[in-house]
Amino acid sequence: MVNAYFLDTSALVKRYVPELGSNWVQSITVPAGDNFIAISQITWVEVRSALARRLREGSLSVDEVDQLVQDFRTDFDNQYEVIDVDRTLIETAGELVMQHPLRAYDSIQLASALQVESAIVAIPETQLIFVSADNRLLNIAQLVGLAIDNPNNYP
Questions:
Q1: DSSP secondary-structure letter at 124?
Q2: Could you give the CA distance from residue 63 to residue 33 in angstroms, rounded to a whole number?
């Protein structure tokens, strides 16, 4: 079975900043694990925002943030399947916010995951797992038919 994961920002940031669930996220994203890892294009902005917030709060230094951004850039360019935000995806996200209590960027994350799932459904023995640390988003993802997991379940 091929392991395929879609990570929203709340999950992916755990790869770069130690917190609850970081070890598990690192274990599924390590290149040697040969897992398929997909993220939305907007994750670039959201991860940078999370790092900037930690810098402002003082939990990360300028040098640490600079290194993490470099690491993230390398992974973004070389490891992740980045789902482009195009008109079709935006239309899907717009439909999702009308049907479910979603924040705008969460709807884009979910629409991106649904796009990945529709593309890999034809690959035998492959199931996409939507990974998020946001229980509300996970519940909605499950409602729309995605398999889910929460990195906070893996201390």
A1: T
A2: 29
In the structure encoding, which two tokens stand for residue 36, read together?
A: 């398929």
Q: What is the DSSP secondary structure assignment for residue 30, as one 8-state letter?
A: -
Look up the pTM and report it.
0.95
Distance separating alpha carbons of residues 155 and 140, to the nearest angstrom: 23
Q: What is the pLDDT of residues 29-41, one digit of tens each?
A: 998 888 999 999 9
138 pLDDT more than 80: yes
Q: What burial letters (b/e) apply to 38-65, b meaning 16+ CB within 10 Å?
A: bbbebbbebbbebbeebbeeeebeeeeb
Decide if 114 contacts 133 (C-beta within 8 A): no
Topology classification of domain 7-153: Rossmann fold (3.40.50)
Q: With contact defined as beta carbons under 8 Å apart, do 154 and 24 qualify? A: yes
Residue type, 144: V
Tens-digit pLDDT profile for residues 59-98 = 999 999 999 999 999 999 999 999 999 999 999 999 999 9
